[in-house]
Amino acid sequence: MHQFDQDTLFTPDEPFSFSGHITENWSINAIPDGGYLMAILAKAMMHHSEMKSTPIITANYLNRCEPGEARVLIEKMSTSRQFDRFQARLQQNGNEKIRAFGTFANENNECILESYEVPGLEIAELEKCLPVPEDSNYTLFSQLDIRLDPICTGWLSGNLSDTSESKGWIKFKNNRPFDVLSILLVADSFPPPILSSQGMVAWVPTIEFSVNIRSMPTTQWLKCIFRTRFITCGLLEEDGEIWDEADQLIAISRQIAQYRAHPK
C-alpha cells in the first residue's frame, strides 16, 4: 500500500462514522495540508457513494487540524440518477475542524460537449524546472516531486514579480498513479502564488477550498498553474488548473485564504 493510501485510511466504526489518524507525512510547518485533509473526507464520502466519478468537493476549514486521532461523520444529502451528494465533518478532540460537501457523478454520464476556450497550459520543459527541495519542516515535499517553472521562482532570491503565479510539474516520488483522492492533494501542494509577488509571507491559511475534477490523468506527470489576482481586506483567492501531459484538463480549483504578512 502506498503511503498516501495508508495515511488516508479511516476505519468505519459505525454506519456513517469513521476513525483514523491524521499523520505528519503531508504537512507544512507541522500543519496537515488542506488537500490531504480533503482527501480523507472525500474517501469517507466515496465509501458510501455508488457514484465515484468526477467529484466536486468543497471544504470549509473551521479550525486548524493537527496530527493525531480524528473522526469523520458522513451524512447523505440527496441522490438522483446522475449524482450522489454528501456532507462530511471532521472532528478532533470533540471539536469540528472541517465541514465538506461532495457531489459525485455517475461515471456513465454522457459527455455531450468537450470544448476548451483557452489553450493548454504553457510551461517550461521538465528538465528546465527547479525541484522543490526536501525540508524537515515541509514533509509534503518529501512525498511529492514538484518542479517549478523558473519564471515563478524569483521570490526564492528576493526578486519579486508583478504577477502572483505558481506553476510547474508534479508527481509522487514513489510514482504512485493519480486518482481522485490524489488530485485533491495536488490541488493544494504548490507554494502559494502570492509568494511570487509578496515574498515569504508568514502564513496563508485556507478558509474555503473547492476542487472540481473533470477527468482522470493518462500520464505520469501533471502540469499545474495557480494564480492570485486580488488581495483585499486580508483575503485572497487562488485559482488553479491541473492538466496532464496530453493537454487534457484534469481539474480546476478555487481557494479562499487569509493573507498574513510578517510582523514589522
Describe the structure.
The chain is mostly beta strands and 264 residues long. It has one domain: Acyl-CoA thioesterase, double hotdog domain (Porin). It has helices at 3-7, 34-48, 140-143, 180-186, 194-198, and strands at residues 11-14, 17-22, 27-28, 31-32, 53-61, 68-79, 83-92, 95-105, 130-131, 144-148, 164-172, 206-213, 222-228, 231-232, 235-244, 249-258. Helix 2 (34-48) packs antiparallel against helix 4 (180-186). The protein starts with a helix and ends in a 6-residue tail after the last strand.
Task: Annotate the secondary structure layout.
Elements: H1 3-7, E1 11-14, E2 17-22, E3 27-28, E4 31-32, H2 34-48, E5 53-61, E6 68-79, E7 83-92, E8 95-105, E9 130-131, H3 140-143, E10 144-148, E11 164-172, H4 180-186, H5 194-198, E12 206-213, E13 222-228, E14 231-232, E15 235-244, E16 249-258
Short recap of the structure:
It is built from 5 helices and 16 strands.
Number of domains: 1
Oligomer: single chain
CATH architecture: Beta Barrel
Mean pLDDT over all positions: 93
Within the CATH hierarchy, at the fold level, what is the topology? Porin
**Unreliable sequence segments:** none
Structural class: mainly beta
Q: Fraction of residues in helices?
A: 10-25%
At the first level of CATH, the class is Mainly Beta
Gyration radius, rounded: 18 Å
Residues in β-strands, percent:
35-45%
> What is the number of strand segments?
16
Number of helices: 5
Q: Name the CATH superfamily assignment.
A: Acyl-CoA thioesterase, double hotdog domain
Helices and strands, in order, run as: HEEEEHEEEEEHEEHHEEEEE
Instruction: Based on Cα principal axes, name the global outline.
Output: globular
N-to-C terminal Cα separation, in Å? 46 Å
The major sheet is characterized as:
14 strands, antiparallel
